[in-house]
Amino acid sequence: MDHFVDIADERRGFADLIDTLSPEELATPSLCRGWTVHDIAAHLVVPLTTGMSVVLFELIRGRGDFDRANLRLTSRMARSSAVELAGLLRSGAGNHFAPPGVGSIAPLMDVVVHGQDARRPLGIVREIPPARLVAILDFLVSRAGRGKGRSLGLRFEASDIGWAHGDGPLVAGTGEAIMMSLAGRRVVLPELSGDGIGEFAIRG
Predict the structure, then answer these.
(1) Separation between Cα atoms, residue 116 and residue 31, nearest integer Å
(2) Residue 98's pLDDT is what?
(3) Given pLDDT bands bounded at 50, 70 and 90, which one contains residue 18?
């Protein structure tokens, strides 16, 4: 399924948010460890403005460590002002970059989850369109990676969007809280309930 229309909408929405924030709000630590709200905006701009040759250079420089390359690229982009970052998000909203072999669900997840990384510490409540949440949740529990590892052997239920997955002890909550927890944001664990919470919590 092609998610690029939703991705463009998410990027524009985040750009609109950035335009409303004060310098103090932009400097607020996000839920993504080590990054401020401003850094989140910079990270979301990186794939829209960075050529593959630069990415490959940083990967080589970081000895193949994608996380290290990502930190360097984001740090460089974060030198831009918030106004510049919002403008780049808007102008590149329709960019169709997607990681090879993964498809458009990956950048959709990236912009939605990181959007919440920024909004939650600022106390900004946002209702994510249910279809986007369902697509991201399905991706998190099925892809080979941390999300799938965190979900194995547990039953997840998001009654607010009618989504469920798996068998075993229950982990229940809103779709957004389940998404954020599967993406590794442990701060949302108190928002979940069920007899599977103990096991889920120790998986990190």
Answers:
(1) 8
(2) 87
(3) very high
Mean pLDDT to the nearest integer, 144-154: 76
Angle between helix 105-119 and helix 175-182 axes, rounded to 10 deg: 100
Query: Residue 5 carries which side chain, given as an amino acid letter?
Result: V
Q: How many CB atoms lie within 10 A of CB 21?
A: 19
- Sorted by where each begins, the domain ranges of the chain are 4-95+105-122, 130-202
Decide: helix, strand or coil at residue 192: coil
Q: How many CA atoms lie within 13 A of 32 on its CB side?
A: 25
Average pLDDT along the chain: 90
Contact 107, 94 (CB under 8 A): no
Q: Report CA 32 to chain centroid distance, whole Å.
A: 9
pTM: 0.91
The whole-angstrom separation of Cα 79 and Cα 133 is: 31
> What is the spatial distance between Cα 146 and Cα 37, in angstroms, rounded to a whole number?
24
Q: What is the dihedral of CA 98, 5, 13, 55, to 10 degrees?
A: 10
Residues 84-139 have pLDDT tens digits of 999 999 999 999 988 877 899 999 999 999 999 999 999 999 999 999 999 999 99
130-202 has which fold? Nonspecific Lipid-transfer Protein; Chain A (3.30.1050)
| Rg over CA atoms, the chain | 17
Is residue 67 exposed (0-12), middle (13-18) or buried (19+ Cβ within 10 Å)?
Answer: exposed
